[in-house]
């Protein structure tokens, strides 16, 4: 008797091969395993999760920090004395690292869901570790270099919180498929209990998170205040060189209600507009006055300052990546810009009936105008044709003397003080950084007839948030962008948000329960298989043409070899094991010989 082993025909599992091949370089079937992952590989999976979560927070930070990219580059310039867009390499590496770790996370979760053993390839391990260390270094560096910017994360959560909650809930709900596949296994372990407890705890936290979400945009539409006025901060510096007549003209074209500037006093007492301590970044001082590019800007007289070009740097450095969109006429005009004086700004504001708000930098102690800088600025205001009530005076030095000299000036402060003290000083407007502008404080100031101006507001989401908070005006580097925001991006009542919250929670609960029930049913069905079925689970279930040909070749090869009638031929097909008796096979041949 000749017995043959059942033929096993395997399907080509391309998806599974790619899954295990990309993650662990295990492209062959024999390299894969359904055994539990080792503790070493579980540790690497934990590091992968940490890298992914840290990069997720890091990416969110830089996404929201877009409002202050120019501030970041300006800080870099003050340290390195070279202007460069430092956000480009950071964004490129962050996007690459996040995409890479997210892809590996998806592959790892698919491994777990399919019961495949985790075995991260060594190259992936090196890259993941490098990404983790690089991200940690970046977080520590930003915390040291730009610590105040972390406030943008907390503030942005007031705007994105409701949507991030729904996204996180959807992700954790989908993760239930992987958790359920591990929890309902036959083997019981403490790890399963820990996984289930952690998963349920995270779900409960997400279900209750909306109780802690507070956003000014969750309000009745009837309580929404008027649209905040937009002030051109240094003009429109994204469209033209900052602090130039062209920049302020561009801002006026965007319908700003006021113009904001930084004022410095020259060596001969002329107030002019300059943000930096030196003239190096925004002028060609290194060419006209070599050796003096690091000198304080206030130690140049007005004739020297007026001879400098204040526009070529904008075309060269392209600080906002907007030069490519400028017309040829605007480029020629930009190339001929000069440093603007305070008197020129006031004349432009008076001609267009706009207000002016400015900060005044005091010259160094050795400067000849060190004691006269306030009077120099006041003289220019008094000699100009602008109405005093259109000028917002910010400096706190000699405020009483200023009020006595020009009583109609709008007194403004950039210091957050109690309402009583503001009234005592005669301050009618507060200019605050957005990190200091809390909704309850804004309502308190507004109720006491103190206007609040917030800076810098360059992104539509932040403008919408400030609008819902009730601010009266915002200072912006991007008035052309805020001009396109006629309404808050989103606003909903508390009842509407409560309905969305409860509905999403109920849907999540139903899906999670359904996933666990299905996984339990699926596992109970697998337990009813006999060992032979489990061993042959990879065999093709439907007989294909190739399988039939193999079966026929095997049968007739046994006939030609003279197998006796008592021999059995066992051939495995997709429907099971079929026994072919020798007599049944030979009968047609005998009948043919008789004929």
TrEMBL record:
It comes from the Eukaryota. InterPro entries: GP_PDE_dom (IPR030395), PLC-like_Pdiesterase_TIM-brl (IPR017946). One of its GO terms (cellular component) is cytoplasm. Keywords: Cytoplasm, Glycoprotein, Hydrolase, Membrane, Transmembrane, Transmembrane helix. SUPFAM superfamilies: PLC-like phosphodiesterases. Residues 228-486 form the GP-PDE domain. It is a multi-pass membrane protein. It holds the Pfam family GDPD. One of its GO terms (biological process) is positive regulation of neuron differentiation. It is found in: Cytoplasm; Endomembrane system. Gene3D superfamilies: Phosphatidylinositol (PI) phosphodiesterase. GO terms for molecular function: glycerophosphodiester phosphodiesterase activity. The chain crosses the membrane at residues 42-63, 90-114, 126-146, 152-179, 191-209, 498-518. Belongs to the glycerophosphoryl diester phosphodiesterase family. PANTHER family: GLYCEROPHOSPHODIESTER PHOSPHODIESTERASE DOMAIN-CONTAINING 5A (PTHR23344:SF49), GLYCEROPHOSPHORYL DIESTER PHOSPHODIESTERASE (PTHR23344). This is Glycerophosphodiester phosphodiesterase domain containing 5a. It comes from Cyprinus carpio (Common carp).
């Amino acid at each position: 008797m000749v017995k043959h082993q059942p033929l096993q025909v395997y399907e080509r599992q391309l998806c599974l091969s790619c899954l295990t091949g990309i993650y662990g370089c295990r492209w062959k079937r024999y390299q894969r395993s359904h055994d539990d992952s080792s503790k070493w590989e579980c540790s690497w999976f934990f590091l992968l999760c940490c890298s992914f979560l840290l990069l997720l927070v890091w990416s969110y930070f830089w996404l929201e920090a877009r409002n202050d990219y120019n501030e970041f580059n300006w800080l870099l310039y003050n340290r390195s004395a070279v202007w460069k867009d430092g956000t480009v390499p950071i964004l490129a590496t962050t996007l690459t690292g996040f995409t890479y770790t997210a892809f590996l996370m998806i592959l790892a979760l698919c491994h777990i869901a399919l019961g495949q053993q985790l075995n991260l390839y060594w190259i992936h391990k090196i890259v993941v570790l490098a990404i983790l260390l690089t991200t940690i270094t970046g977080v520590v560096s930003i915390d040291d270099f730009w610590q105040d910017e972390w406030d943008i994360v907390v503030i942005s959560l007031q705007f994105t919180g409701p949507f991030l909650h729904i996204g996180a809930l959807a992700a954790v709900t989908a993760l239930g498929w992987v958790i359920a596949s591990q929890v309902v296994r036959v083997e019981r372990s403490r790890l399963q209990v820990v996984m289930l407890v952690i998963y349920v705890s995270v779900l409960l936290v997400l279900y209750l998170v909306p109780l802690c979400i507070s956003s000014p945009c969750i309000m009745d539409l009837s309580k929404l205040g008027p649209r905040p006025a937009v002030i051109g901060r240094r003009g429109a510096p994204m469209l033209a060189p900052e602090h130039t007549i062209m920049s302020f003209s561009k801002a006026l074209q965007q319908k700003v209600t006021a113009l904001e500037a930084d004022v410095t006093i020259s060596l001969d007492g002329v107030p002019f507009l300059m943000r930096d301590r030196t003239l190096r970044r925004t002028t060609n001082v290194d060419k006209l006055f070599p050796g003096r590019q690091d000198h304080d800007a206030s130690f140049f007289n007005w004739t020297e300052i007026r001879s400098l070009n204040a526009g070529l740097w904008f075309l060269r450095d392209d600080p906002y990546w907007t030069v490519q969109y400028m017309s040829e006429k605007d480029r020629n005009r930009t190339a001929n810009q000069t440093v603007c004086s305070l008197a020129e700004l006031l004349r432009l504001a008076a001609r267009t009936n706009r207000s002016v708000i400015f900060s005044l930098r005091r010259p160094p102690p050795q400067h000849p105008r060190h004691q006269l800088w306030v009077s120099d600025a006041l003289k220019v205001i008094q000699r100009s044709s602008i109405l005093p009530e259109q000028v917002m005076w910010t400096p706190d030095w000699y405020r009483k003397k200023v009020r006595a000299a020009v009583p109609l000036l709008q007194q403004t402060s950039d210091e957050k003080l109690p309402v009583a003290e503001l009234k005592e000083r005669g301050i009618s407007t507060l200019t605050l950084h957005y990190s200091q502008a809390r909704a309850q404080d804004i309502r308190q100031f507004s109720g006491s007839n103190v206007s609040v101006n917030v800076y810098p507001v360059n992104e539509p989401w932040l403008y919408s948030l400030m609008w819902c908070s009730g601010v009266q005006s915002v200072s912006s580097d991007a008035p052309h962008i805020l001009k396109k925001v006629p309404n808050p991006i989103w606003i909903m009542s508390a009842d509407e948000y409560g309905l969305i919250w409860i509905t999403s929670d109920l849907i999540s609960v139903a899906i999670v329960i359904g996933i666990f029930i299905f996984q339990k049913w699926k596992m109970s069905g697998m337990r009813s298989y006999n060992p032979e079925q489990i061993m042959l689970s990879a065999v093709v279930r439907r007989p294909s043409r190739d399988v039939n040909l193999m079966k026929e070749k095997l049968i007739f090869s046994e006939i030609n070899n003279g197998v006796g009638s008592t021999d059995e031929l066992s051939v495995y097909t997709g429907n099971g094991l079929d026994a072919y008796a020798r007599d049944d096979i030979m009968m047609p041949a005998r009948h043919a010989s008789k004929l």
